[in-house]
Amino acid sequence: MAPSIIFSVLCPLLVLTCGYVQPLEEGFISGVISDKGLEYAKELLIEKGIASILMLQLPEIENSAQVPLVGNAKVVLSNITITDVQVNSSSVKTGENGIVLVVSGAIVNLSMRWRYTVSSWLIPIGISDKGTASVKVTGMQVGLTINLRNEEGSLKLSLLDYGCYVGDMSIKLDGGVSWLYQLLVDAFEGNIASAIEEGISEKIKEGIVKLDNFLESLPKNISLDKTATLNVSFVGNPVLSSSSIAIAINGLFTEKKEVLVPQGYHQKELKVSAACGGLPKMIKVSIHENVFKSASQVYFNAGKMQLIVDQLPGQAILNTAEWRFIVPELYKRYPNDDMQLNISMSSPPVIQVTYQDVGATILVDITIEVLEDVEVIPVASISVEISTSCAVEIVGNGIVGRLTLQEFSTYLKWSKIGKLHMRLIQSLMSSVLRTVVLPYLNFKLKRGFPLPIIDGYGFQNAIILYNHPWIAVCTDVFFLEDYYLGQQSSSA
């Protein structure tokens, strides 16, 4: 009904989704609201709309008429209040002309108070009375057409057309006399209908203004931590097809100190399908691999991809005494000294979305350091190339990943303690990777990053699809209040 309803549902979908359609330059998170999503939005918005206009009080109505044998009757209707709304049918459609919402065949019940005074030459002192009445409207129709456009990275909402039409009306008087009832029907039916139509139309305009302000207030950047922000400014205009709404956002990570979006990411002439593997889902969020690459670049540039290891789980090999047979020169120079491993990435991880998963190639330098008194002495550096696969999943309203080691290779970069036997070092590197490096990276990936969605809504029954260079999240959306009510009923 009122527009605040349609967009209380559409906004969360719009903000988090984005479109398939035309490849939008620099739009690296994209998606689409399907007809199923629009249908869900419609049902929820009608429920919310009814709640928003219940107890709506219409302006007082005053009229007068000449009643035969009675005289001039002045009647005032006050406290005209909508008490109940029932919707028989409704529809929401999208297209080049905008989003069209129509409610038809609605039944509206109202309550009101009446009072009258009559004066004539027959009754010089006048008479008066008062009471209540109920009104039932059938066949009411409400319609509105709205449009969305991009304005400097924010969504701008415009009301193109709107209206409310009241059908048949019946009035039931509590008290009064027959001539008063007839007077209400003859003289006030049009006034009551106009008051209803104008009251609901005014609500439509108010709702659109509030929603436009809400869209304008949406942040263009989401702070993820002390290092990075996610650029969620809208890119291009929304595209409205016959059964979907498509929008794109920038979607790249940036360092907090940066003003401009990192350069070098291009995706021209790429398209993202709206299909979800034949499954009917409300929305599809598609994420380009450049989103992950931008995250990798930001954290690498910020020096966040470094780790110092001074002990290995279940092993006591970080002492030169344990290396006396593997690297005799090390033990000879630094007998019985503790050691540590300085692990750092030599370049940002290379990330690629395949048709099965997300692959990552990670280049790591592991520098062996001896701790002599208070001095840290680098003695050798080993370069490790790691190939991993990353399984992506949705946890809550965020996207997280978990790396699995596929293979790795090592070579000696430099050494101050003579030649190292890399075959003997290989098992140590394997232990470091499996017990330290990958668990550390998975701990970071477990934090994930949030997909943009309005508070109060959540993902449900999400699935992941891979289609180079995009990874897609196909999911239903639910209002959290529905979840809480369902949990309460199931536990009762």
SSE diagram, text form:
Blueprint (H helix, E strand, L loop, with lengths): L2 H14 L12 E5 L1 H19 L3 E2 L2 E7 L3 E16 L2 E7 L2 E22 L7 E25 L2 E12 L2 E7 L3 H40 L3 E3 L4 E4 L2 E7 L4 E5 L3 E3 L27 E6 H13 L4 E4 L18 H6 L4 E8 L4 E4 L4 E15 L2 E21 L2 E18 L6 H26 L1 E2 L6 E11 L2 E10 H12 L1
Antiparallel strand pairs: 1-13, 1-15, 2-4, 3-4, 4-6, 5-6, 6-7, 7-8, 7-9, 10-11, 11-14, 12-13, 15-24, 16-17, 17-19, 18-19, 19-20, 20-21, 21-22, 23-24
Helix pairs in contact: 1-2, 1-3
Structural notes for this entry:
This is Lipid-binding serum glycoprotein C-terminal domain-containing protein. Keywords: Glycoprotein, Signal. One of its GO terms (cellular component) is extracellular space. With 492 residues, this protein is α+β, with helices and mostly antiparallel strands. The protein has a domain at 42-216: Bactericidal permeability-increasing protein, domain 1, CATH 3.15.10. It has seven helices and 24 strands. Strands 2, 3, 4, 5, 6, 7, 8 and 9 form an eight-stranded antiparallel β-sheet that branches. α1 runs antiparallel to α2 (35-53) and α1 packs parallel to α3. The chain is rod-shaped, with a radius of gyration of 34 Å.
Keywords:
single chain, 492 residues, alpha+beta, Bactericidal permeability-increasing protein, domain 1, 7 helices, 26% helix, 46% strand, disordered N terminus, Bactericidal_perm-incr_a/b_dom, BPI/LBP, Lipid-binding serum glycoprotein C-terminal domain-containing protein, Lipid-bd_serum_glycop_C
